[in-house]
Amino acid sequence: MHNNIAKIRLSNGIRIVTEEIPAVRSVAIGIWVGAGSRHECEKNKGITHFIEHLLFKGTSTRSASDIAESLESVGGQLNAFTSKEITCYYAKVLDEHFDLAVDVLSDMFFNSLFAEKAIDKERGVVEEEIKMYEDTPDELIHDVFVQTVWPNHPLGRPILGTVESLSKITREDIITYIRDNYIPERIVIAVAGNIKHTDVQDKLRPLFEGMKNEAGAAIDISTPHHTKPNVSNLYRETGQVQICLGTKGLSQIDERIYSIYILNSILGGGSSSRLVQSIREERGLAYSVYSYHAAFHDTGLFTFYAGTSPKKYDEVIDLIIRETSSIVKDGINSKELERTKEHLKGSLYLGLESVGSRMTRLGRTELSLGKTVTADQVVEKLTAVTRDDVQEIAKELFGEGDFNLSTIGPLKEQVNIEPYLKQLLS
Questions:
Q1: Candidate list 40, 52, 85, 127, residue with the active-site label
Q2: pLDDT, average across residues 126-151
């Protein structure tokens, strides 16, 4: 293990990972749970995210406003997020307030009341969050796209759920979901900052050691199949057409993921990327254009996004396919490869200036991969990637022309994707 990183496993299976950074005055702590929207059934869509909200709404000794004020009053932060496979509750404070952060987080985690009144009120808050999201086409398009790719799979559902599914979630559903999913073997506590490993372990052990594995029925989290290209258009009277175009990616555990990081960065990962240069800078067709790769424990999704004028969307789709086709056929040049490696390395190390991102790296890698992956290890893997590796992965992802497409905007009918794909397959 890295000399300033330590890990222990409590007798019930909870893992505690710490990183000592003596040069700072702050500490970040996160409780990471391997439960996300993927672990929901059709009936309780959105429950994971709803629970994340409810943990801030009062415990047996603290009201919702007590929780909100607790860390804010000492200049700290308290927050949480839910993704497809993970929920995380975290705090960032000055080192002298670490005990308070542990106290508040563990209180929320174990003693939340889930009072009926709080549930009803928060239901209204999340419904407004859903409506706000639905009023923001450049965010909504990503959910529409995932639903288009995996129409009958939990990974295809929106993390927030729907107003309808939310209205049916009961207190009993919440208690059951927590019992089944918030279990020790799926919990990692990550701490980074000006702390001592042994102090953190001594503090957390008595609080978390007593937690029991009481899982009920296991939810089926089968791997989704990538169906033949699906296309969808959500009609909206908007000034732009939002486009998401993409194809299958790699899982978190696939070692070739480092080639994808480089491929993604070259195609649409920054202002010097091929797509930004060809679509925005050279032709002025979009303000926002980028690509990203989402990796899950058993699959992945590589996505291109652009927002453009209804008169120009076909040109944008054509240019995206053209750039992918160019890498499939001709690969990348060595200058591009070196520049991209330096860019990724720089972003990675600059991110480590904050204790929050260090804590996130510890928690996320331990929960997803069962081990801590340091920035140095990532850089080592990135450095080893060759031009051939990048071309190989581009061929695998894009070579078959297996693209899905979603649009939101004033298009009267769905886009026929086949003509665009001809250049990939020719």
A1: 52
A2: 97
